[in-house]
Design a protein that fits this description.
The protein is built from nine helices and seven strands; from the N terminus they run H-H-E-E-H-H-H-H-E-E-H-H-E-E-H-E. It is of the alpha+beta class and about 230 residues long. The protein folds into two domains: about 140 residues, CBS-domain; about 70 residues, 2-Layer Sandwich (Histidine-containing Protein, Chain: A).
Length: about 230
């Protein structure tokens, strides 16, 4: 089984800025390049932080509305300072949350979720920028065709990894959802099989109604209920 990595899906040509890049230039960069964020780099190409559309909108939010009303108090002094900043050094979110080219797609997704960011600058071993990966890039995996998913499960997971007879388990894939039916020699193989299938690129979910010949787990026998997709 070969999983796609950040290096496979990232964008290599990255629009960047320096700490002294002025506010107005970011608006032009976003519009001209159809992007929503820019990494801010030091003199050696290492990410210091990110400036996004949200950082620019913050300045608009502090302006009075047409009736002359001003916004309420800032929750902390740092927010006010960023709203009033004129260059990237003050506008950016820092430190930059980065990824490595060799990360798996799930690793990158977990980092985005943990830090609540939409994109990650990708850095090499020296910490220098080599690309950028976004949520949209990661979603490419779910465009993988059902046939390709089924072939990988049948040949790589069941055949090569688990060394099962190809007629042992029936694999059906519909819209990325995998359904496994059949009989395995040992009960302990069922969760292993299910977990390996979940790890295949493009799999949305795995449902199984696998039976077994030999119970080697010592658990009470509770045969799984067949999976019936919603109609």
């Amino acid at each position: 089984m070969q999983h796609r990595t950040v290096d496979d899906v990232m964008t290599r040509e990255v629009v960047t800025a320096g700490p002294d890049t002025p506010f107005k230039q970011f608006a032009a960069l976003f519009l001209r390049n159809d992007i929503t964020a820019v990494p801010v780099l030091d003199d050696e190409g290492r990410p210091l932080g990110m400036v996004s559309e949200a950082d620019l909108i913050r300045k608009e939010a502090v302006l009075p509305d047409p009736d002359g009303h001003f916004p309420g108090r800032w929750s902390n002094p740092g927010e006010r300072a960023r709203a009033e900043a004129e260059t990237a050094g003050g506008l950016m979110s820092s430190p930059a949350v980065t990824a490595r080219p060799g990360w798996s797609v799930p690793e990158a997704a977990r980092a985005m979720d943990k830090h609540r960011v939409k994109r990650l600058p990708v850095v090499d071993e020296a910490g220098r920028l080599v690309g950028i990966v976004s949520r949209r890039d990661l979603l490419q995996l779910f465009l993988r065709h059902d046939t390709a998913i089924r072939e990988e499960i049948t040949h790589d997971v069941l055949g090569t990894t688990l060394r099962l007879d190809p007629d042992t388990v029936r694999v059906v894939v519909a819209d990325g959802v995998v359904t496994l039916t059949g009989r395995l020699l040992r009960r302990s193989l069922i969760p292993v099989t299910e977990q390996l299938c979940r790890g295949v690129d493009g799999v949305v979910a795995v449902h199984q109604s696998l039976d077994w010949t030999e119970d080697d787990t010592g658990r009470p026998i509770e045969h799984p209920q067949p999976y019936h997709p919603a109609t």
